[in-house]
Design brief:
The complex is a heterodimer of chains A (92) and B (524). Chain A is an alpha/beta fold and 92 residues long. Chain A is 27% helix and 23% strand. In chain A, α1 links the parallel β2 and β3. Chain B has 524 residues and is α+β, with helices and mostly antiparallel strands. In chain B, the strands form 7 sheets. In chain B, strands 15, 16, 17, 18, 21, 22 and 23 form a 7-stranded mixed β-sheet that branches. In chain B, α2 links the parallel β4 and β5. Classes of the chains: A alpha/beta (92), B alpha+beta (524).
Chain lengths: 92, 524
């Protein structure tokens, strides 16, 4: 038998489940632009569709300072406090 | 000094120390001639004083103990310390080691090897303590002295095992048992712990040996490793350094690499995640290069040198195993890069009259410093075998560098240029006394009118053509150099003496929104 030492961080990843899908959208939807080129084009279109189909829902826009790094803690907290849902647009 | 208590098995059951009576502990091993020489005296002591004094022989291997009993007709109890835990706890270097202890286990006398006078004094002292008659010993038959042999507990490999098993061990990582019928190398592949090449199994003994490469505490947290933001202790780094094939003396360089890379400025998260296939490129400066035998000459960017190959690999294994950066997970590179296995080298400072990289970055020449760059692509070669002037060669290097990322990508971020020695000689013999001369020439020769570096129908890839519409003719003609500033051109000298080539690494997205080259002093 060989004994080795664990080279990993030894943490058991948290198992996350999808939040149950709501029957109806209400409240605030956040649209997060990660600041890759043309992400805003996609989000503009989504925002227009929300206004058209779900006028009772409020849409708020957010933007990461750079796509190369995870969203700053403050931005994540702001979205969490202000929104019931968030849609993140990725790239190009 | 109170001696460590212990319980060991003997032929007639287990024996504990202290015994509540005076005790004579005799540590021996069968294949030691000096132990053999001492055995008749040990047996005599047991026979003469055994009613008052516990004579305990502590033998270092079970089979050898049986041989000793047979060979010397021993009636004194011989205790089995084949696990060597007691020998280790007593910090033995040599056998025989003979220790006289009082009933509470306090040490009274100790000697190592064989000394005729030591034994004479011991026998008289035992006679005095016990009130029993000393045995008749023909002392003249014994030599005056004989050196002992090495204790089994300090044999290579065994010492590390014992240290790893001892309660004061610095190791805290989870221990994983690989079953005897499993191939340990295949096991590590199966567990996803490798970069695709075999790794050295990180046994506790090897990790302890690796930890001798630093004075820092094994449980010190050096960095938080992205993408999982996991803490990297010195121990975890040492484990991955063992796997990468490092020697202990490389460990301080690996630690400095982790410290440099796991910073907000370097942004290892982005480097590992980008589809551009960026990788950390490590440059080492200062005296440690020589001490650990890093390659800075022939084949500097290639294979064959253990320090270069394994330091970069250890960093990547930490990012993979501790940080969780795995291809297909948060590692999203389109093509990957061979640099993602390993990329570390040293600057050949002595070959060059120019200031070395670390001095340019504000460190002292005698400091050992690691600088991490976030670079894409494998080294690109700039071929110029004909230029004999600094201006022409500097021009070649400039237009060569213009291809970094895309020839139209001007005002670009960082580049790491490796100037080969033959090119260096052409440049320095013709007036380029500092790296600044070469930087200025690169910026000069690559300066193009803005209108020439925008995307068009023939060649895309540059700045957006939309910006031209609002520009005056003068603005369109404004010259734009390849690099945002001369300081973005990072220059080192390395490579073989023969070959009119230079090489470069193109930077990944530069600046606060990407990566910033980051240096750390290497602890020595």
């Amino acid at each position: 038998m060989t004994l080795i030492l664990d080279p990993t961080d030894e943490r058991v990843p948290v198992r996350r489940h999808l939040t149950p899908r709501p029957e109806h959208l209400r409240g605030v939807i956040g649209l997060l632009d990660i600041s890759k080129p043309r992400g805003n084009v996609f989000l503009d279109r989504l925002e227009a569709l929300f206004h058209e189909r779900l006028p009772e829902v409020e849409v708020r826009r957010y933007r990461k300072p750079t796509f190369t790094k995870p969203a700053p803690e403050d931005l994540r907290r702001k979205i969490l406090e202000e929104c019931g849902y968030v849609i993140e647009a990725l790239a190009d | 000094m109170v001696l460590p208590a212990f319980t060991l098995d003997a032929a007639d059951g287990s024996r504990a120390f202290p015994t509540g009576r005076p005790a004579l502990l005799c540590f021996v091993k069968e294949d030691c001639p000096t132990c053999g020489l001492s055995m008749p005296l040990i047996e005599e002591a047991h026979r003469a004083f055994g009613n008052e004094v516990d004579v305990l022989i502590v033998g270092q291997d079970a089979e050898g103990n049986a041989v000793l009993v047979e060979r010397h007709g021993l009636t004194a109890p011989i205790l089995d310390d084949s696990a060597l835990h007691v020998s280790f706890a007593y910090d033995l270097d040599t056998v025989p080691t003979v220790i006289l202890a009082d009933p509470t286990g306090e040490e009274r006398t100790r000697f190592v090897g064989f000394g005729r006078d030591d034994w004479r004094h011991l026998v008289s002292s035992l006679a005095e303590t016990s009130g029993l008659r000393a045995p008749a010993v023909d002392w003249d038959a014994y030599p005056e002295s004989r050196p002992g042999c090495g204790s089994k507990s300090v044999e290579p490999g065994i010492a590390e095992r014992l240290e790893a098993e001892a309660s004061g061990s610095p190791l805290r990582a989870r221990r994983i048992e690989i079953a005897t019928q499993d191939d340990e190398f295949e096991f590590m592949f199966d567990q996803g712990l490798t970069d695709g090449l075999p790794v050295v199994p990180p046994t506790p003994e090897r990790v302890l040996r690796m930890l001798r490469g630093t004075r820092r505490d094994a449980q010190e947290v050096v960095a938080t490793v992205p993408p999982n933001m996991a803490p990297a202790t010195i121990e975890k780094i040492a484990i991955n350094a063992v796997m990468a094939g490092c020697l202990p003396e490389y460990l301080p360089v690996v630690i400095a690499a982790i410290e440099a890379v796991c910073t907000d400025t370097f942004n290892a998260h982005g480097i590992m995640a980008t589809t551009m296939g960026a990788a950390p490129v490590l440059v080492v400066n200062g005296p440690i290069r020589h001490r650990i035998g890093m390659n800075m000459g022939l084949g500097v960017l290639g294979q064959g040198n253990r320090a270069n190959a394994t330091i970069g690999r250890a960093l990547m294994l930490v990012l993979r195993n501790v940080g969780g950066a795995k291809p297909g997970g948060t590692e999203r590179s389109t093509f990957g890069s061979p640099m993602k296995y390993t990329m570390a080298f040293a600057e050949w400072e002595e070959r060059s009259p120019w200031s070395p990289l670390h001095v340019e970055r504000g460190f002292r020449a005698e400091q050992s410093v690691l600088t991490a760059f976030g670079m894409t692509g494998a080294p690109h070669l700039i071929v110029d075998q004909t230029s004999r002037s600094a201006r022409a060669l500097g021009g070649s290097i400039g237009v060569g560098l213009e291809s970094a990322a895309h020839p139209k990508a001007h005002r670009y971020g960082d580049v790491l240029l490796v100037v080969g020695p033959e090119h260096l000689d052409t440049l320095t013999h013709d007036g380029y006394a500092t790296k600044e001369h070469l930087r200025a020439r690169v910026q000069e020769v690559t300066a193009r009118p803005f209108a020439d570096v925008v995307s068009d129908d023939e060649v895309g890839g540059g700045a957006s053509a939309d910006s031209l519409t609002s520009m005056t003719a003068e603005q369109r003609a404004r010259l734009v150099p390849k690099f945002d500033t001369p300081a973005n051109i990072h220059i080192v000298v390395a490579g073989a003496d023969a070959g009119k080539w230079s090489a470069f690494f193109a930077g990944w997205t530069t600046g606060a929104g990407g990566t910033i080259p980051t240096s750390r002093v290497i602890e020595e």
